[in-house]
User: Which sequence fits this backbone?
């Protein structure tokens, strides 16, 4: 398997930086991508994507089975609703790290449960976009072990 990490971002994360900055911070999605590229360094390649469409995320996870050594995913609102994304991740045999910028456990009750957490090998919440950097480091560690 190539040394490649797929970073998936779910709905509304394309508007990071302008979207409720008091919750999600001032960094834009391109800023997050840059931080992830710095974090992966020379280790391997980074494939950074965002979609507002559940089915597109499902298709990308399916395709990653043959192309990527690990997935870092912020499923955004689909965390709380999507059995389809969970099912796709259950077919992905390599490592999965779930990240949430905000602390979903301290917010509205409907955000407390994440389907993706049933599958994730590691979960990071409430660390802002720094959680993505931590997630990349964790994935490199999981893939190497
Ligand atoms: C992002 C979203 O868009 C929300 O729907 C989730 C997550 C939380 C985050 O904290 O990154 O509830």
Assistant:
């Amino acid at each position: 398997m190539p040394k490649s990490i797929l970073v998936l971002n779910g709905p509304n994360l394309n508007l990071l930086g302008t979207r409720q900055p008091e919750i999600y911070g001032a960094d834009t999605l391109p800023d997050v991508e840059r931080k992830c590229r710095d974090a992966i360094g020379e280790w391997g390649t980074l494939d950074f994507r965002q979609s507002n469409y559940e089915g597109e995320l499902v298709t990308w996870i399916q395709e990653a089975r043959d192309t990527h050594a690990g997935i870092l995913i912020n499923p955004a609102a689909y965390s709380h609703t999507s059995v389809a994304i969970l099912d796709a991740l259950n077919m992905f045999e390599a490592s999965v790290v779930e990240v949430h910028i905000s602390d979903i456990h301290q917010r509205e009750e409907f955000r407390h449960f994440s389907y993706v957490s049933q599958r994730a090998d590691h979960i990071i919440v409430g660390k802002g976009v720094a959680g993505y950097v931590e997630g990349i480091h964790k994935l490199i560690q999981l893939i190497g072990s």
